[in-house]
Amino acid sequence: xxxxxxxxxxxxxxxxxxxxxxxxxxxxxxxxxxxxxxxxxxxxxxxxxxxxxxxxxxxxxxxxxxxxxxxxxxxxxxxxxxxxxxxxxxxxxxxxxxxxxxxxxxxxxxxxxxxxxxxxxxxxxxxxxxxxxxxxxxxxxxxxxxxxxxxxxxxxxxxxxxxxxxxxxxxxxxxxxxxxxxxxxxxxxxxxxxxxxxxxxxxxxxxxxxxxxxxxxxxxxxxxxxxxxxxxxxxxxxxxxxxxxxxxxxxxxxxxxxxxxxxxxxxxxxxxxxxxxxxxxxxxxxxxxxxxxxxxxxxxxxxxxxxxxxxxxxxxxxxxxxxxxxxx
Amino acid sequence: xxxxxxxxxxxxxxxxxxxxxxxxxxxxxxxxxxxxxxxxxxxxxxxxxxxxxxxxxxxxxxxxxxxxxxxxxxxxxxxxxxxxxxxxxxxxxxxxxxxxxxxxxxxxxxxxxxxxxxxxxxxxxxxxxxxxxxxxxxxxxxxxxxxxxxxxxxxxxxxxxxxxxxxxxxxxxxxxxxxxxxxxxxxxxxxxxxxxxxxxxxxxxxxxxxxxxxxxxxxxxxxxxxxxxxxxxxxxxxxxxxxxxxxxxxxxxxxxxxxxxxxxxxxxxxxxxxxxxxxxxxxxxxxxxxxxxxxxxxxxxxxxxxxxxxxxxxxxxxxxxxxxxxxxxxxxxxxxxxxxxxxxxxxxxxxxxxxxxxxxxxxxxxxxxxxxxxxxxxxxxxxxxxxxxxxxxxxxxxxxxxxxxxxxxxxxxxxxxxxxxxxxxxxxxxxxxxxxxxxxxxxxxxxxxxxxxxxxxxxxxxxxxxxxxxxxxxxxxxxxxxxxxxxxxxxxxxxxxxxxxxxxxxxxxxxxxxxxxxxxxxxxxx
Lengths: 328, 526
Description:
- The complex is a heterodimer of chains A (328) and B (526).
- Helix content of chain A is 50%, strand content 16%.
- Chain A has helices at 4-12, 14-27, 33-54, 59-75, 86-98, 100-103, 107-123, 129-143, 146-159, 166-174, 178-184, 193-202, 269-274, 282-289, and strands at 216-222, 236-240, 243-248, 251-258, 261-266, 299-305, 308-313, 318-323.
- In chain A, helix 9 packs antiparallel against helix 10 (166-174).
- Chain A is globular, with a radius of gyration of 23 Å.
- The N and C termini of chain A lie far apart (63 Å).
- Chain B is globular.
- In chain B, helix 18 packs parallel to helix 20.
- Chain B has helices at residues 49-64, 101-112, 126-136, 141-147, 157-161, 166-171, 201-213, 247-252, 267-276, 292-303, 309-319, 337-343, 347-352, 373-389, 397-408, 419-422, 433-450, 458-467, 475-493, 500-525, and strands spanning 80-84, 89-93, 115-119, 149-150, 162-164, 180-182, 190-194, 215-218, 221-224, 229-234, 255-258.
- In chain B, a hairpin with a 4-residue loop joins strand 1 (80-84) and strand 2 (89-93).
- The A-B interface holds A 16, 19-20, 22-24, 26-27, 64-65, 67-69, 72-73, 76, 78, 106, 108-109, 111-113, 115-117, 119-120, 150, 153-155, 157-158, 162, 164-165, 167-169, 172, 241-243, 254, 256, 265, 268-271 and B 1-3, 5-6, 19-20, 23-29, 31-40, 272, 276.
């Protein structure tokens, strides 16, 4: 049963909403009426209820924004019962009502931005959308406005596994109030922000709450395509313009990795043209011997890039990431 | 939230993704971009203008104008192509982002503030397209509609430009005292003249002044118009309107774009507009509306796009094919088609005497005229604009190849009696002017490659030397250069047939020879 404020808005613009649905169905032929009704009931209704409690003057805008974006979400199967990633709608249901006062500033921006962020986290292998939702949840009481909350979300997304955003997320963190920045970086207590920021900038494998020993196996990424991973055959590493590339079959990816995650991005032809595959260095092999790698077979490639040593092996579709100290 | 907002969706940037020029960087701002349309209002200057222009293009093709004709084809890999029908028609599936000329050309005209003529049968969206350009410039739809000039046989100069105030006409003692009520359209940055070929000849002359010189004159009073983009429409560009379009007015038009036939497979889209009561021009998203300052900046940025030497040389080679007419005159400089035209001689009587050359191979034999300076400058403008639109800062040869037919559509006249059009497969080009012009450019490029002019171009080498200046060049060096020029001309005179490109090269050699001769004379007096 929908709440009265939402029913009121839907009643007042009935023909317009129906026409909007009809137009959306033209754009997304798979858009299902029942699925959309469920979205309205499960996701939009709690948001409108929460808004009505804190900003009753914004109820109509929230309802209209939620309805419009909901059509896009359900039409593209990002939300609704047949959604490809249930976590997107779960995140909206969780965050929007809690952030109702903040989201009421610009409800269309709020729901669109949160949906896109949740979608990226959901489709990125190894990312942890649950952590991101929790970080936003923590930030809501002290964020104050929507822009600040979204900035916290950017930092938290990096920390939730989107390693490629590391540099720009650190820049965003530097612009946040200290308490919020510390919370977004997962360091509510401990060193001051400036110290933490400097440590994070210095070493990608530094984590406020993590293991600091080196060398250590800090992560594993990749996997066989048949099991949902990206690689058709055991990968090999290459270096291109100071970056790590991973090659498998005819494909290649740029690897971004740090203490919070590892992401792979299709390499451009320009990056591939610069790629070289150096033989494993004696020092690197020495470091590998000190550890037990979670990958079977002989080492096929090993490249050190700053404080990261990436390793591949003959019988594995994974790339093992070893944190090595700056002076190792 | 209005239903029309669904029509206001603008394509997400980047609309034509390019590989990053340097090292790849990731921006966490992208976290909030994704499958759900971005609701953030862009701050002025936040979106690059070329991106904004592409967003405008994609909004028009996706929402406003139903034009599923991708006739400006780009490829990044060998495209798939199929041969169909008895006439062996070729259908190509481009492998890179390709465009509809009917939308792209008006948009490039908007960005460069030039002049575009829409041709095609009635009811094909010519006027609607022009109207959209007015809205993109920030004018309300109603204002654009009211400012549109509709050509008709009774149209007077006063209808077009403005009237003297009646009270002043009676009371004024001298002409300066008569005030003129200028028509509001003259002050607009987008000017639309519908069915311009229905305007009487005398009024066309007044229109020519506004189009060509950017001012209007009534009773000795002058109104200076702002720089603007012009859109003219005609149901028939061959002078088939009520009045013959005067030659000078025709010449002022920079590009001609044909409104292609409606594809009946898209009838459902028309139906949706009726059912949802949406007029695209009334729901133009504000993100794609350009301010005056932005259009100024667009022009500056387009002008800054580079045309490299390789592309320029091919264009020079192409342009040199057409003006030359060996039998037009005795003196070398006058051996041009323009000499024949000015003499009023019949073209076929001249071509009948032309027996020495292979008239099928010589591209110059396919046209009745050469290229004007105005046409070449327009070609540069639009080639730069197309490259800019595609997100590049250097013009590629393909940009020139794609834009050239639309610029030269009215500028290069085909000689329908030329042997090329009677050769197998040639007859179709009598009606397909776009295809003919593109084929002409391809043939010129192939000839350029055959002559290996990118690597072996002695005239260019000599010109580069001269371009460095004559200051400090010694007498012996000047004599050596003169000898090189004379030797080159001597080599070419040995049994080589004269073609347009050789004619231009020879005239340049003569020019350089004269510069060196004068300089040598001066050196000798020192």
